[in-house]
# Entry
Amino acid sequence: MSILSKLFGGGAPKPEAKPEDYKGFAITPAPKNEGGRFRVGARLEKEIDGELKSHTLIRADMLDDLASAVDTSTRKAKQMIDEQGDRLFD
# Structure
């Protein structure tokens, strides 16, 4: 991989994290690398009346390492589910 590809995000895509089931929702942590720091983010999905609904969570929080960002993304997603439940999809 060339130095430019490394700098500008080229190359093979990274594998997606496995979803975690929480209260009937599937939480897939998806922190985004922004200049060597990671923005908290996740995808929340749930099947409602036979239709798969999806919500993308993006937070302003930035963390220095991927593992912490994944943990925080999952925790924030659970908090959002606890607070809003199915209203996430309204």
User: Anything to note?
Assistant: The first strand starts at residue 20 and ends at 22.
